[in-house]
Amino acid sequence: MASMACISFLFFLSLAIAATTTAVKQTYIVHMRHDAKPDHFPTHQDWYSSTLQSLSSETQSDSDSDSLSSLLYTYSSAFHGFSASLDPAQAESLLSSPSVVGVYPDTVYTLHTTRTPAFLGLNNDLNLYFHDPHHPLDIDQASHDVIIGVLDTGVWPESASFNDSGMPEIPARWRGQCQSGQDFSPKSCNKKLIGARFFSKGYHMASGGGGALKKHLEVESPRDQDGHGTHTASTAAGSVVSDASLLGYASGTARGMATHARVAAYKVCWTNGCFGSDILAGMDQAIEDGVDVLSMSLGGGSTPYYRDTIAIGAFTAMEKGIFVSCSAGNSGPNKASLANVAPWIMTVGAGTLDRDFPAYAILGNKQRFTGVSLYSGKGMGSKPVGLIYEKGSNGTGNLCLPGSLQPEAVRGKVVVCDRGINARVEKGAVVRDAGGIGMILANTAASGEELVADSHLLPAVAVGRKVGDMIRQYVRSEANPTAVLSFGGTVLNVRPSPVVAAFSSRGPNMVTPQILKPDLIGPGVNILAAWSEAVGPTGLEKDTRKTRFNIMSGTSMSCPHISGVAALLKAAHPTWSPSAIKSALMTTAYVVDNTHSPLRDAAGGELSTPWAHGSGHVDPQKALSPGLIYDISTEEYVAFLCSLGYTVEHVQTIAKRPNITCAKKFNDPGQLNYPSFSVVFANKRVVRYTRQVTNVGAAGSVYEVAISAPPTVAVTVKPTKLAFKNVGDKLRYTVTFVAKKGANLSARNEFGSIVWRNADHQVRSPVAFSWTQI
């Protein structure tokens, strides 16, 4: 979040087709009717090249070679079509072709940016917790055959987290490769890191028509110059590494979630972001290579699924049995701020760990406030110095933006900086460059009481809003305010935890309000994982420190936790569909913290809701044996898409089936067999949904329903008991939600749950209620 590696994954650019024919070229993604290829073209690429040649002729291009060079990628799996550099007139011309379904401007996405295995109950002897006396299973051994594809900023292959000691031979079905590039040899891969590729054509085109990459540190190879990709890949499946720490913080043994799974890295993100054309190419290749899990800590905003690059590629992945995990975004605590909300994607929010890094600010009035920090330098000593908080030379000194502080006022003092606008670590660098010797980073209302630790370049303490307000008041009211900062190292068993991170993006789902998102939360605050040695822990160019591990926060960090846990479930249940794995993770998630109280929200300290935490916090041990699952077929997803009012062409863009007619569709998108419920009453008082559950527990299992509902809604479930004779049996139930007459509920939202339970299992589905169309 402090650098590109942890900046919130926000959708910040959508390029529209211009009206003028003289505009410069830009990248477009072209959806073709795959089955319409004329027989005289040997391949689809030949067909696409010919199509571009004809465009050049129509628009009087200088040469055919110019048209051919404009072809960036051809897509065959994640998407049917190609991406190319076109001017607006060419894009308009393509739309008139009967073979073209749609033409979409390229979109820029951004990155959503140890202790966790123990916090999640994942031990090295996990297999002891998952066994059947008749069919014993060693999950570590089984996960050797599971391949996690990570689309991100690349990988630092020399990291000890990708050590392949003891790993068996690479699965024979693997079709990927280790792509050579600048400062990256094919020998960089091994039996752990089995593949590495890079995709930069879309980024090249956006950076000026295919010239050299702008940033001098950025190289044309899978090598990670940013750190984000190495961090996420090692979180998902890093090998066990002893004596890991960030400059002494969080010291101990580091390991990923699925330590014996394989990793394949696909570099699709560059200095200026992650371009949809490159992401689609990476997804296309990962699907062809044979990955089992796709982990994507990146995303955009709310957009229809047929315009969402990630949703389109993920649909094909789902069809081929690939589990797709994506970060929810870092735009919380704002409502309706989610990314990656397609129901075939696991949308992951972030929570805290039971580990903290306390730091202290002692004011001149003897008040001692506790915050957090990962500062690892010499410190500022024990003598109090002047404390300053002011607007500065251009009125933005309180935010500590570059150029906003006056050196004569700051020199030798501790500066109070408001959180927001620019990166947290950059604020510290601004203070240091202006001559300050320390910083108190104070939250505002936007971040509430959430505390995120950073490896600052100068002594710095981050504090919550309430403490920040008291410090600001002290500076304003005291004639000679002073402060001294100190640091407390690493503390474990923090209570309460987990707490939903304030930055974690929230519902409701603005694309399909009848699907509750996010799906769940995982560890995403102050996460220790491997790091690129090409960049310092802050990600700032002026940070020359080198470290093998770094501590970062963001839904970028929670996403690979879920990806790794999904790999373990894939190893334990190789025949389960992505929907089945997703269901197991959701229905077994917990909603109480380690004080046995309901989950809280760091944004304001109040109780959290499913719009923030979804089904709850992931529980890997329980997910291995969920009892019941909600499975969803590809046909059901198509019926869901058809119920959204999309045209047949739009549905074809996502599902890539030429014979789709939408003859079958749901009368309400909420009829999808989803493991959670989002009830939108709008102009009706009664909503009725039917679900089907599959018994994956024991033969002869019987479940009874338990309903939790607000007083404003009557909920009935029929039948109230489900009795399964055999494993694999499927049974249906119907839920009727009735909004009670009376109070004005136009601006209210409520929550509840439906739980199927017996002595061995609690299969829980959260329910969100809205009275207005979102």
From TrEMBL:
Gene3D superfamilies per record: 2.60.40.2310, 3.50.30.30, Peptidase S8 propeptide/proteinase inhibitor I9 (3.30.70.80), Peptidase S8/S53 domain (3.40.50.200)
Domain of life: Eukaryota
Domain Inhibitor I9 residues, every copy: 27-112
Peptidase S8/S53 domain boundaries: 144-593
Keyword entries, A-Z: Apoplast, Glycoprotein, Hydrolase, Protease, Secreted, Serine protease, Signal, Zymogen
Annotated ranges, domain Subtilisin-like protease fibronectin type-III: 671-768
Span of domain PA: 400-470
Signal sequence extent: 1-18
Entry GO CC: apoplast
Role according to the record: Required for arbuscular mycorrhiza (AM) development during AM symbiosis with AM fungi (e.g. Glomeromycota intraradices).
Family, as annotated: Belongs to the peptidase S8 family.
Entry protein name: Subtilisin-like protease
